[in-house]
Amino acid sequence: MIEVNPQETTRAYAFDMWMDAPMPMVTLFKTLDVTRLVRTSRRTGLKFNMLMCWCIGRTASRVKEFYLLPVGKKLIRYDQLAVNTIVANREGEVSSCDIPYSDDLRQFNADYLRLTRQVAESCTNHDLTDSMVIGTSALAQYEIDGAVGMYSGVFNNPFLIWGRYKRRWWKRTLMVSFQFHHTQMDGAHAARFLNELQEEIKRIETP
After folding, report:
1. With 80 as the cut, is the pLDDT of residue 150 above it?
2. Smallest Cα–Cα separation from 179: which of 150, 207, 142, 200?
């Protein structure tokens, strides 16, 4: 990762406009058709949450805006992505776990299982500071209609939240919220990302 001059990037105007805004985060909501993901999870035994995280990472890896992130008052360009998931640990609390993104689903799944198990047992967060981390939080036990992430002013990372998927006949749908820093991307970038995430979910192939 390296610091870049914002004026030499496509985010120059956004940097000037939003870096000092008191609330620079934007949240979009989208209902995804996750029928294929649910069927894939049941057929292969792969965790639904892992498949969601992989589809998010895979989609984001093709969007150049995800590799730029405002950190403090600087704009940082990253070479790699990671997807964060929240883990229930052995003390009954939650810990944070960053999983390096890999195009190889088998590798991502292996890392997901290994690292989430490690975090659950150690009750210690696993952070990847050299990656642009996409945050996620799955409230899989609950049906929710949406959630807006908290903006702390410290972490500017993009963040997705979802609950339990809904059943209607043969179809499974999932409401997802996507929060992002306006300096990193515009609404059109975010909406396109969510549309492409839907397409990635529909065409997922497992090894």
Report:
1. no
2. 150
How far is it, in rounded angstroms, from Cα 133 to Cα 57? 9
Q: Rounded CA gap, 23 and 181, in Å?
A: 9
Residue 178: beta bridge partners? 28, 160
Burial label for 103, CB within 10 Å (0-12, 13-18, 19+), is exposed
Confidence of residue 124 (pLDDT cuts 50, 70, 90): very high
Closest of 64, 43, 205 to residue 132, by C-alpha: 64
At 1-10, the pLDDT tens digits run 899 999 999 9
CA torsion angle for 188, 49, 161, 69 (degrees, to 10)? -50
Q: Is the dihedral of CA 178, 183, 184, 188 positive or negative?
A: positive
| CB of 116 closer than 8 Å to CB of 88 | no
Where do we find the tokens 């939650």?
94
pLDDT band, residue 141 (cuts 50/70/90): confident
Q: How far is CA 18 from CA 3, 13, 23, 182, in A?
A: 18, 9, 8, 6
Give the closest residue to 186 by CA, choosing from 55, 14, 9: 14
Paired tokens of 190: 């975010």
Residue with tokens 């990037």: 9
pLDDT over 90 (residue 146): no
